Amino acid sequence: MKPYIQKFLVVLLFVLGHFSQAQAGIFKYLSEYQLGVDYTNSQDSLLLTYETATTSEGVNSDQCEANEDDSSVMDCHASVFRGTGDGWGVVLEKPFDRRGFWHYDWGIDGSVRWLRGELNKKERDKQSAAALPLKKMTYELAAFVLKPRLRFGIAPSRKWPDILISIGPAVQAAVGEVGINQQKKTVGVGSTSTSNALAIFRGFLKLELVLWRFGDGAFSLFSESDWSGGGGSTGFYPGEVDGMSNFRASFSSSTGGAIYGLGAKLLLDWP
Hints:
The chain is mainly beta. The chain is built from 3 helices and 13 strands, in the order ααββββαβββββββββ. The longest helix is centred in the first third of the chain and has 16 residues, at 3-18. Strands 1, 2, 3, 4, 5, 6, 7, 8, 9, 10, 11, 12 and 13 form a 13-stranded antiparallel sheet that branches. The radius of gyration is 21 Å and the shape is elongated.
């Protein structure tokens, strides 16, 4: 087991072991959830930003812009596209509580992800053409995304499917390894989609078409996207490497599938 995963588990066990009342409340809350499976196509990407000194050769304006506070420093960026992947996943979700034809409710959704990617050749060439010192970047992170949400839509009592839309902010916490050029470090990263109340619904958007309900279970098609980092984030990589510093990252993810671009989810009537 990798060191950062061990640290994550130690912290989690410490919190659960020393806050028994909170622990009981968490378990009671989780006991209300149903187990299910989904099959989706997902796409993840990362926008890396960093600061570096202005080079004598000049800097490509597509990759950098002048720092407003310090004219000797440039604010630069690099996009990392992880790619797409199909696969099965496990779902934990509260049973649907219908409240009439026009439906609305609120709650908290969450997801666990394994994020892994690296700077591809095209992006490395862009950095090189701009005479920038970023030659290589890799990351491997275990992440948890928390999504407080408002859900609304229609829920007919018979015949027609439910159509539900969920919106809300997104907060991500991750631990793992990040490498800049030839130097790797173990990191803890936090990011949020919003920093003020006016932008609270910029975090994620989910559209769900529920085709069949049976007891507390359901079969549905859905599409979802989330974005964390616009409101602020902790440092993505500590310290300085080859004249670069203040590394930060914004994460985005979209989930769909092969059924008219939608993923499929089967929520079981259990436990």
